Amino acid sequence: MSGDQTAPPVSTIDPYEYLQIIQNSDGTIKRLYEIPSTPAAPDHNGSTPVITKDVTLNPNHNTWVRIFLPRQALDNTSTNNSVGNTKLPLIVYYHGGGFILLSADSTMNHDFCFNMALQLSAVVVSVEYRLAPEHRLPAAYDDAVEALHWIKTTHEKMIRDHVDCSKCYLMGTSAGGNIAYHVGLRVSKAVDDLEPLKIKGLLLHVPFFGATQRSESELRLIDDPVLPISGTDLMWKMSLPIGSDRDHEYCNPTVGDEFDQIKKLGWLVVVKGCDGDPLIDSQKKLVEMFKKKGIKVETRFTEGDYHGVELVNPTKANELFVYLSHFLEK
After folding, report:
1. Cβ neighbourhood burial of 146 (10 Å; 0-12, 13-18, 19+)
2. Neighbours of 191 (CB within 10 A)
3. Model-level pTM?
4. pLDDT at 82 over 50
5. Looking at 277, 281, 282, 305, which residue is catalytic?
């Protein structure tokens, strides 16, 4: 009986109901909720302040990218003056969704990238990567790296004419932050392969990490309505390689030791989190690990917010963009 009293708390939220999914007998899932989406608007003559366009990445994997270009870049070019020669920083963005949900064209992801391109005067390339459990990790990482190689070789005018390839940042929200981190680890070991693309840093927005051992913030927020622990457990179970637990390197960055190149390259790592997020302890642990390795890191941990609030609250999103603007080289 005494053992029951000391047992760790268990989430009471049904993760399948929370995620609105049904598991099929073949290991795939049926996604029950039809998430609102927004089509691209490649209207160069219209009034939208940001032009958007979808371009196929890998037809065999059904992957693609959505490009967000501030119209001001076109206006500047058309004036044919010194301002017109100014190219914009590039943010390669990976969306969240626990590796199993959402898309680059999901309305909240589209709006977030649209406003980010506008507020930061940057070209944003949002990557549509393969989802688990149909395509378990590292499929999403593979697609994310493939997107970088596409950017370096493409003749797409929105990239070629308006992107300063020497000012590239990898950014992701939640699971996308995890992807940006792992892509950073990969490409830091072979930066010459990406020339002329030069990565300046990683922008990790509420990145999705964890471990087998529950953190204090996970226990404190075990039934958090935005991100319950039962939900994160199921997302990891469906996305990690079969047979792996949450101490796999894809989930728990403390089990790896691959940061030497990031330090040598002088990349900046920016981590944004909040105290209402069950993942905050894992994010802070990541920051401490970077600091011990001598990597340049900047953090912003806010109070009173919840996981991914910036995706649904434009005011909070603008606060994030103002913060990020300090780190983008113009």
Report:
1. middle
2. 15
3. 0.95
4. no
5. 277
